[in-house]
Amino acid sequence: MADLTTDFLGIRSPNPFWLASAPPTDKEYNVRRAFEAGWGGVVWKTLGAEGPPVVNVNGPRYGVIHGADRRVLGLNNIELITDRPLEVNLEEMARVKADYPDRALIASIMVPCEEEAWKAILPRVAETNADGIELNFGCPHGMSERGMGSAVGQVPEYIEMVTRWCKQYYDRPVIVKLTPNITDIRKPAAAARNGGADAVSLINTINSITSVDLDSFSPEPSIDGKGSHGGYCGPAVKPIALSMVSEIARHEATRGLPISGIGGVTTWRDAAEFMALGCGTVQVCTAAMTYGFRIVEEMCAGLSTWMDEKGYRNVSDFVGRAVPNVTDWKNLNLNYVAKARIDQDLCIKCGRCYAACEDTSHQAIAMKPGRVFEVIDAECVACNLCVDVCPVENCIDMVPMAAGSTDPRTGRVVSPEHADWTTHPNNPAAQAAE
Amino acid sequence: MPTTTTPGIAAGRLPSDMLAENFLDLHPPMSAHEAQVAADRCYFCHDAPCVTACPTGIDIPLFIREIGAGRPDAAAREIFEANILGGMCARVCPTEVLCEGACVREAAEGRPVEIGRLQRHATDELMSRQGHPFARAAATGKRVAVVGAGPAGLACAHRLALKGHEVVILEGAPKPGGLNEYGIAAYKTVDDFAAREADWIIGVGGIEIRHGRWLGRDFTLDELTSDYDAVFLGMGLGGVNALEVEGAQLEGTGDAVGFISELRQAGDLSALPVGRRVVVIGGGMTAVDCAVQSKALGAEEVTIVYRRERAKMGASCYEQDLAASRGVRLVFEAMPVRLIGDDRLEAVEFEYTEAGPEGLRGTGETFRLAADQLFRAVGQTLGTVEGVETAHGKIVTQGSGRTNLDKVWAGGDCALGGDDLTVTAVAQGRDAAEDIHSMLTG
Q1: CA B320 to chain CA mean position, Å
Q2: Which residue intervals define the domain Dihydroprymidine dehydrogenase in the entry (chain B) (predicted)?
């Protein structure tokens, strides 16, 4: 039986599934229930500075993108950080941590970009005995208008500065949560590392308007006929998050920096993919908001059985295994030649591959009498669109051509050697092969 | 109070609440969400097989996509452009042998996209909003006579009216709709849908229906061809075939078409008499509609006896299963040889059959079924229409319904070559209208 125990920055948790700082972790009542349900850790809903609590809108806070059958594919929110008094949150965190010493409890913090503000809150958080802190430099709505959240995360110098204060005034792990609303995720990640961060977590939510009401012409979610961009999350953002995680995992200046992966994790498989790209833990929010806390049971069971099947005894056995395979386009092997192949026994004759290839790709599928669809190898560039649109799993395969065979499209013999853009004759900057 | 076991033929065998339940909508309408989920299952196939399978060629993937995108009204328009009786066809088409039978998901997983119910969802939505989605072209001054207000006649009249022609429909029955109104099981078209649909179709304008006008009794084809610029014959099949066996005149025997018609027009189903033991002779949709409704009225035993093997039965597998699930017994490869009784029918004697080189023949082995009532559902006949060439008891047509007579077209059940389906009749009526229009304006 695989061991899901995770050691992240010295913080141990029985599994790598943490709840992200968000509405599900806003109070003791929820967090206790989350721990009872089996979550390995919780990042408490972001704390603000002492003083009058923040106020939220009194209308809709969430917008949604639905897939078939109203499946939640994407969620956006305009909720601010916790609107409960700081003292109440701190007391609750201390109680919960005392009762669940084996679980990770992280305090998310967002206070103004002033040293005094951080200096004031950090000792109080330390008193709760929380395992670490997460600096919320990510939330893109509301607080960012006041110079916090993503307004900090978008300026690497601020990230570095605040991280340094935190390392100075707090002696437990410091995780910096990054906003994806930037051009190059490597810059803020490097800044965090320069400031002494123990880890980064990403992604926070993405600027978004989920829809526009075509009667009122108000963006959604709509507050009295007006809307403001919210933070987008859920399954729809996972590919963006995976890419950003991979950039940090492989970039020279950030390589080796521990990562807690966030962004659309819904099942064990999503989690395993984030971990394969270098994440020591994953954080979940939308899936828990959609289905409730019990989904962690599926995540633990799924990850555990997959690890057993693959022979991984600990999560560290596979964390980062996919990182070496993420590369730049220029390094991809141009001598790798594949052709689509349609399994006629599995084909249900819908013709979607044909329509896609005709209207988008390379007119490389022939429609023959009896609705038989066949690939024309002399035209097929192996783009994969037919595979992507085919409703039948495994009906269309991309089959690599063996070295030594001739590609009927180009008339060239497939070479066993690797050759890429860096050495390609069409590349003006190509290095002649030695 | 009569019950299901009361001997003879009796009305009121079931309490009214049970009757109401037995005649509920066979395919209840979809909710908007149900339709969204069902629509999402459509793959939007290239050159979709369902469209090919539809006699009216409705662009099914497109209308389903329009439902999925939240515009059932746009979907309905798409449907009605091809088939103005799309509402009725959604209810009565044997979809399992047409569009849904061709659906790639039927091949893939044995569960096709629910095209029929989606079509109903769209058409109900648009029709419930009143008004008519199409506007007529400028008046041409041409006048066309249509004989029969059934599916073929209505489809033809509607398309001609759209083109700007004036149409007069001559209909013998007091209500329009033809078999939709008089010849289809009540549970397939509840809430007076056939009549509502006919009214809605006529609502396009330019169509006048004259009821109580039978061809050959009240007017002749010659009169029509001299009074109108063109004539479309869509009067269906008026006669019913007889059973040529001993005892066929006994009280308790009747024809299925008449029974269904009476049932459809009955204000109170509890006043409609039905036998305790009912035998239906035949193997088509009419036999099933007759048998299932006899059972629904409270008959204790209902048996369909068909002379050929099951695979040859005209009623679709779905209809056969429906009959069986409603408690109707199906007997194959047997033909009636004698009706037994003094004045009233008491039993039917059958002989088993086998297929031989010269056709069907009796095996000599017989059996009897006790019966208070027998319905014939062994086909209908056209009768004669003066001057029109017929073959196999139907009008011979070429191309888009052209008969041997100039200015005369035909379509629907009265014409040769159809398969006696509402949807085929609609296609023929529509295509004849296009052809007539070309001729009138060419």
Answers
A1: 16
A2: 21-129
